[in-house]
Amino acid sequence: MTDAAIPTAASLRQTVEARLKKRHAQEMRFRLYGRMAIIVALCFLALLLGRIVTQGYSTFVDYRIAVPVYLDPARIDKADPTGANYDMLVAQSILTKLGEQDDDLGEKSGKVMEIMSNDLGFQLLKMVREDPSLIGKTITVTGPVKSDAALYFKGQIKRSTPQDSRKLDDQQLDWMDKLKASGAVTSGFNVSFLTNSDSTEPEQAGVLGAIVGSAMMLLVTAVLAVPIGVLAATYLEEFAPKNRWTDIIEVNINNLAAVPSIVYGLLGLAVFSNWLAVPRSSPLLGGLVLALMALPTIIIATRSALKAVPPSIREAALGVGASRTQTVFHHVLPLAMPGVMTGAILSLAHALGETAPLLMIGMISFVPGVPEGFTGAATVLPVQVFIWENASERGFHERTAAAIIVLLVFMIIMNLAAILVRRRFERRW
Amino acid sequence: MPSQRDDSIAHDTVAPVHIAVDRAHASQPAGPIKIRARDVNVFYGDKQALFDVSLDVPENSVTALIGPSGCGKSTFLRSINRMNDTIPGCKVTGRIELDGEDVNDRSIDPVVLRARVGMVFQKPNPFPKTIFENVAYGPRIHGIATGKAELEEIVERSLKRAGLWAEVADRLHQPGTGLSGGQQQRLVIARAIAVSPEVILMDEPCSALDPIATARIEELIDELRNQYCIVIVTHSMAQAARVSQKTAFFHLGKLVEAGPTGEIFTNPRDSRTQDYITGRFG
Amino acid sequence: MLIWIALTALLLFSAATYMAARRKAVAATGGKPVLLHSLPGYYGSYAALWVGAPAALLILLFAMFGGRMEEALLRADPPAAVQALTAPQQDVFFDDARAIAHGGQPSETIYEGDLKTALDAKAAKAAHLQNLIQYGSVALGALLALAGIMIAYPRIGPQFRARNKVEGWIAGLFIACSVTAILTTAGIVASLVWESWRFFQAVPIHEFLFGMEWNPQIAMRADQYAGTGAFGAVPLFVGTFLIMMIAMLVAAPIGLYSAIYLSEYASPLTRSVVKPLLEILAGVPTVVYGFFAALTVGPIFRSFFNWIGAQLVGGSFDGLGQYLMQVQNQMALVAGAVMGIMLIPFVSSLSDDIINAVPQSLRDGSLAMGATRSETVKKVVLPAALPGIMAALLLAVSRAVGETMIVTMAAGLQAKTTLNPLDTVTTVTVQIVTLLTGDQEFDSPKTLSAFGLGLTLFVVTLMLNIIALRIVQKYREQYD
């Protein structure tokens, strides 16, 4: 091997330049793949959120019908007002308003009942029961129209569809147009979606019960998981000797953080529900299960917040004669608090969206109302989503999307709170 | 000294350095200009790191850039092969010519430029691959070798020239990260040589090494001088005195003084240079 | 109610003890608290802790386990008429007795003769026992509180090291909290192993692990479950694997390429916009993905395949066309694809961390050789980051295997052993949910099989995590 074998600078340059075009093309392709990957991911995000908003926003508009009803003493027994058929009274009042006569078989009033909610009848019953003197008077009740009727007003059931393949026939559509034109049916913001609880009738179903259930469950989770998690992390980070035991605990916590959530459901079912007899479907049981689930993430977040506090702070406190406990409680923990709070809020937000373990501990049951207490039956927002998604009525589909919107709003609020805490109190060393 | 036959290896390796120092001081005729820098300014965002630097770097010699930390000598080095392009927000103005061509010209491809101007960093940075693959990296990406045999030849030649062949010939397929610090730095030099660059830039190549390894590298630099134009940034004035023929002194982003190494060290014109080399600051 | 009163009383008593102990400590120094070993508050806390903590713990324990004690005592000596009943009937009998005693809803079973007398007697006894346990616990709590004050109060003096003692209590609390993490694991393992063991008594373990037929519904008829192979979990494993593979085929390339782009190419501005957006994708609850899969992706995919089928029918691929025409909403592809979308940010953020851990000096070295960015990434950065990226993908696999809601809502219930992504399959997690939602009897293998599946799931994900975390740890050490 002599120096003669070494190529000259010029020939080398030629070799390099000969391949340049190909290499730059490769570079562009690679960069393009990266860009495409990000664009695809963002498109998925847009599609996901877009679909939910387009499917759900219509829930927040509702159509209510106002009808004057004559409480005919001939048909309502003063002694037993519960016996009367209030739905029929309302239906016939609507027919009167439409200028139609009910036939003997009650076919027309039956059809009217398909476009008005039975909530109107319930309202009448409630009013009469509270104040029997109303009998014989004419009162106006206002209530939602049936969900199919609302879908027609929202344009999701169309007149162009053949009569056989839609739920409402032409006559009912005519009536609805007439009622709308006469001003008996008005639209507005759907307050009842936020103030009602679950119901078998889509137009009366709301998320209040689920929101309250979620709040109660998160309260249990927070009360249990945050103090225990913070104290455990503080012990492991600040006090524990570094030995085999603490190593085991550390590895264990990291692995617990990745155990599928459904396994926590099995744990809750076997240990809390069957063995400790915590009532099924209760916010207490759900909170316990989610607390165990949130614990590892809170511990991990707290430990990294504590690690970020520089040792000089500890040395300074110890140097003026504080005990280790005082050092930790007076100096280290307060300084680590923003990080701890951020971690805690984020893991609670995660717990808020968790569904799978709750299905197993009976939260899937139908709960028509706000939970009565921590041991009463309850449902929570994500499970409500799951329940409604399984329902067959079309009216529930938009409500599912709307419940998701409510759920996402709460999660966004919690995440914003976490960001705010971090921005407001973050300290750089 | 030669009588002490049982002397340590350290003695054997250190000895040539003294020769190098002698050589360095032997006044050599400066070769033709390889790199010509004119009015180079470098900005990192709003901060200016280099002010109007103009410097000529001669062919087939070692040029040392000295000065206190943060004086801009590494920044200048990195603008020669446009490594500053990789730092977001970094802007270079002025002309840096390599054989008369402006390296910042649009027609110059940084890929080609960097193949012509090799670089050795402060900390040895072998890739987490085998020794062979480390050296073969450049020839592979640039398509220099046409076959396996030629590639092996290039690797062997580069390792020999970097003075590492004898130590690694039997373990070419072991990871390069397993070598000692000094060996790693020579491996990195071999990697740079493998693409037969015209210029080799060295950014404090010995600052992470012990004195013995440093001596080996300095010896190597002196040998390489015959074939390449070498620019070396160093913290150590002794090193600059030992290995370089030309020295440039940077201070606060400005080039204070440049000239033959012997003159800078014995007869500096600027008082700042004098203060620095006599140890008043830096 | 009684418990709350007792706890409030205890709290007040502790507070009073705190004040008294504090005053005693200060008084002992003649009003010069400086002479005390610890701050006066510590003396108060020390006494209050001795008074309050053990008693409160005792009362709470009784509140938690009192019901079980009562039941055990109630069942201790069943009358002859009750002994004649079968075990489930006995359960109902005692539940009814307790329900009557505590004003609950008894079952609709009608008891007559001896049983009726026994029931009344047991109901009376249950009420009596409940009182006994409640008042007993409160009395015991009061005794403990008094004992606490007897121990703590006399010790208080200027030389007493109250702070150290209080800190000892705090250390105990710390350790108790840390042990919760271990207890959780122990609880998971114990409950899964215990219930699975009961399941494996009815269905042999090899049949469960290697059986090819999954049909837990058959087991409703008690004579049929054992030996029929209705609890063979292989179709579930195959279904889980299929969906996991589809998810990884979506998530791995997209997640990895996004991570590479974000860490190697993107400007700080792009990074600061894209990363939070991807985090939103990660924060969306899985039930939302399930809804998206079931009501958006499913119908889109079905009509797409049906359309392709319609094009092919009558041509040379008639059979395939006919098949595609019949594809349903619930296919493995839908669940897998949506799960893949869910995993993109997971893969991307883990890989981003891993790639950023590769030292900049390696990139500089490669770029200074004249390598392009993509050559640097492909030939230097990725090989260096490979172990870490493998670990990230393993963690994603573990996530995919354990994911429940998407598959429950979009994958279907039919247990089929197929690798056809257009077919409907079911997974381990879907079956767990299906088996355990609604009312269950805790004795049927049908219910217990869920725990067998849960144990399998736990073991598999745990292994994946342990391996992945090991790799990541080794990887980080390499570059630290």
Ranges of chain A where pLDDT stays below 50 over 5 or more residues in a row are 1-5
Query: For this structure, what is the CATH homologous superfamily of chain B?
Result: P-loop containing nucleotide triphosphate hydrolases
Kindly report the spatial arrangement of strands forming the biggest sheet of chain B. Answer: 6-7-8-3-9-10
CATH class of chain B: Alpha Beta
Query: Which regions of chain B are unreliable across 5 or more consecutive residues at pLDDT < 50?
Result: 1-27
Shape category of chain B? globular
Largest sheet of chain A: 3 strands, antiparallel
**Total domain units of chain B:** 1
Overall pLDDT metric of chain A: 86
Please give the most extensive interface between any two protein chains, plus how many residues each contributes.
A-C, 88 and 92 residues
Question: What report would you give on this structure?
Answer:
The complex is a heterotrimer of chains A (429), B (282) and C (480). Chain A has 16 helices and 3 strands. Chain A has 429 residues and is mainly α. Chain A has 3 domains: 3-57; 58-196, no CATH class; 208-425, MetI-like fold, CATH 1.10.3720. In chain A, helix 8 (208-239) runs antiparallel to helix 13, helix 13 runs antiparallel to helix 16 and helix 15 runs antiparallel to helix 16 (394-425). The model of chain A is unreliable at 1-5 (pLDDT under 50). Chain B is an alpha/beta fold and 282 residues long. Chain B has one domain (33-277): Rossmann fold (3-Layer(aba) Sandwich). In chain B, 39% of the residues lie in helices and 24% in strands. Chain B has helices spanning 9-25, 73-80, 110-116, 131-142, 148-161, 165-168, 181-193, 211-224, 237-243, 261-266, 271-277, and strands spanning 33-44, 47-58, 62-66, 90-98, 101-102, 117-120, 199-203, 229-233, 246-251, 254-260. In chain B, the strands form 2 sheets. Chain B has a 6-stranded mixed beta sheet with strand order 6-7-8-3-9-10, sandwiched between helices. In chain B, strands 2-1-4-5 form a 4-stranded antiparallel beta sheet, covered by helices on one side. In chain B, helix 4 runs parallel beside helix 7 and helix 5 (148-161) packs across helix 7 (181-193). The longest helix of chain B has 17 residues, at 9-25. Chain B is globular and about 55 Å long. With 480 residues, chain C is mostly helical. Chain C has 2 domains: 2-160, no CATH class; 216-479, MetI-like (MetI-like fold), CATH 1.10.3720.10. In chain C, 44% of the residues are buried. Chains in contact: A-B, A-C, B-C.
